[in-house]
Each structure stands twice: as C-alpha cells, then as structure tokens.
Specification:
Distance between the termini: 7 Å
Order of helices and strands: HHHEHEEHEHEHHEEE
Strand order of the largest sheet: 2-1-3-8
Shape: globular
Number of strands: 8
Number of helices: 8
Oligomer: single chain
Helix content: 25-40%
Strand content: 15-25%
Structural class: alpha/beta
Radius of gyration: 19 Å
Length: about 270
C-alpha cells in the first residue's frame, strides 16, 4: 500500500460517512414529524454529509483521533512510518485539522504526528484478503465514553445483564445531547479497564446493518424511548445502534465499558 493510497483513505474517511450510517440517519429522519426539531437536525446533518462528500472536505470540524486497524499480514507493507507520512500529507492537504496537542506543554503537533498519534493496531487476519480500516473519533464523543464497575449501589445494578442494562441506560441519560446525538454505543462487558475500552471501541467497526442480538435490540429500543433525540432536542432517535461484546474477567472485577460515537461515525475499510 502506497503512502498516496493511505492519504486517499484518510481523505475519503474524513469527508464521507459509510452507507450503513447514512441509511440509519435517513431512517431516523422518516420517523420524525417533518417540522419537529429532530427532523430539522437530521436534515441538516444529511445535507452537511452530502456537501462534504461532493466537495471532498471534512464533514466535521473535529477530525478526531485517527485509529488504524491493520491486518498483521501487512506489517512490512503498511508500517507506522508510512502511516505517519500519510497523516502528515493528509493534514497538509486539508483533509485533517491540526488536531494533536502535547498534553504536558500544550504545544500543537501541526502535522498530527507524534508518539502515539496516529493510533495503530495490528490485528489478526479476519478475511481472505488483508484489510486496513481507519476510524476517526471526535473529542466530543470520546468525552462521553465511560466505564462502570459492578455492583453499582447508586444504580441498584448487580453483576448480571440487568446491571449491564442499568449502566448503559444511565450512560445514555447522562450523555444527553452533549456527544452530538444520535450516536452509536460500543459496549464491552467484562475485561480489565484497558481492554474494556479497546474492545468497546472495536464494536464501532461493526455495520449498523448487522442484525442485532436480542439484548442489543432491547438496549437500543429502551435508549430511544428516553426521548433525548438528535442533539438532545427531543425526538425518537437518540441512538442509531448498540453493539455489545463480552470478555472474561477476574472474580474481583466486573466492568461495563461504553464507547460513545456521535452520528459522524467515520470509518472506512480498504482491501490491500
């Protein structure tokens, strides 16, 4: 994979939502009354997406944290150095905002390249052809992600699926519109604190067209019944999807980790 091809991947991810997300937004719009605030917000989002794709410009001013998931068979062809060169070029081309800050000094890394940026994961092969996937996650949605430790007395939540449900609905209630709803939840039940967030974020790679499990469908239905709606202005769609995974845990711990993604679920996969 050439540097120029990675730059193209970044530009397309920044400017175009995947079709499953657009389909979910259109479905949400059809559920709202035409003159309702929710409908106005959803129409504006879809118009913004169409303009961004046509003009090849970022569809959100927060181009977010870039996370690459690279098939392990590509370690020699898609190296960290090549990915960082591509990010720097994509920034120079205007596909990315200058969006990376040194946490200790406050200095801006104007090319979006430094230790730990972009984030790069080499993953086990899951397809016949090796894949590279890019996810761009904005800071507003990242701020709304959270982790619970069960049992949670304040929620009356025990170490069972009812407790997990209580955590997820509490998170949605607290997020309100701050994370640019409607959003998508990636949930990890179990694991340790670090892998919980990692696995929860990985669920955001799953298509919204994928048939939900009964538990996922219940969480989505109940979250949308809260009436928070697009941008927190009320409406029938607070979430576009809920994706849940589980990992083993030690007896002393039971974490429920929630990765929140805003409507701008920017992800794209290419075959190498």
């Amino acid at each position: 994979m050439k540097v120029e091809e990675i730059v193209e991947l970044i530009g397309e991810t920044s400017s175009s939502l995947p079709e499953d997300v657009l389909k979910a937004l259109r479905t949400a719009l059809r559920r709202e009354r035409g003159d309702a605030s929710a409908a106005v917000v959803l129409r504006t989002i879809l118009e913004n997406c169409a303009l961004a794709r046509t003009r090849k410009v970022p569809l959100c001013q927060d181009t977010g944290t870039l996370t690459f998931y690279v098939d392990e068979r590509l370690r020699r062809r898609v190296t960290p150095l090549k990915l960082k060169k591509a990010v720097a070029l994509a920034t120079a081309h205007g596909f990315l905002r200058k969006n990376t800050i040194d946490s200790l000094t406050g200095r801006s890394y104007d090319d979006n390249v430094c230790e730990g940026a972009p984030v790069i994961h080499y993953t086990a092969a899951t397809a016949s052809a090796p894949l590279v996937t890019l996810v761009m996650k904005g800071g507003g949605s990242e701020n709304m992600s959270r982790q619970y430790s069960l049992p949670d007395v304040s929620l009356g939540a025990g170490r069972d699926l009812a407790g997990v449900r209580a955590c997820v609905l509490d998170a949605v209630q607290k997020i309100q519109g701050y994370g640019c709803a409607p959003g998508v939840l990636g949930v990890c039940v179990g694991g340790d604190r670090a892998t919980g967030y990692e696995v929860a974020k990985e669920q955001l790679l799953r298509s919204l067209d994928e048939k939900p499990t009964p538990f996922e469908a219940r969480l989505l239905k109940e979250a949308n019944r809260l009436g928070i709606g697009p941008m927190g202005l009320g409406g029938k769609t607070t979430l576009l999807g809920v994706k849940v995974a589980a990992r083993s845990r030690v007896p002393a711990s039971f974490f429920v980790t929630i990765a929140y993604m805003c409507w701008a679920l920017r992800r794209k996969t290419v075959v190498c």
